[in-house]
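Quick one: Transposase from Paraburkholderia humisilvae, C-alpha cells please.
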Amino acid sequence: MQSGFYKGYSIWGHAIPEGDRYAANGTITHESRVIEGSGVLGYFTAEEDAQVAGLAWARAWIDRHNGS
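--- reply ---
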C-alpha cells in the first residue's frame, strides 16, 4: 500500500494480490473518515503499478469533486 496527501485528503493506493497479478484499488479519507473507495480499477503484474493506479484514481476523484 502507498499513501499520500492531496488537497487536504489522505489518499491510499492498494495492490490486492490475485494469483500472479494485483488488483488496483484506491481509498480517500478526510479527518479519519472514509470519503470514497474505488472498487477494482484494473489488474497489474507489478504491485507498485497497482498502487500508483489507486493513487491516481484518488487524485482524479478529488479534482472532479472539488471543482479543481
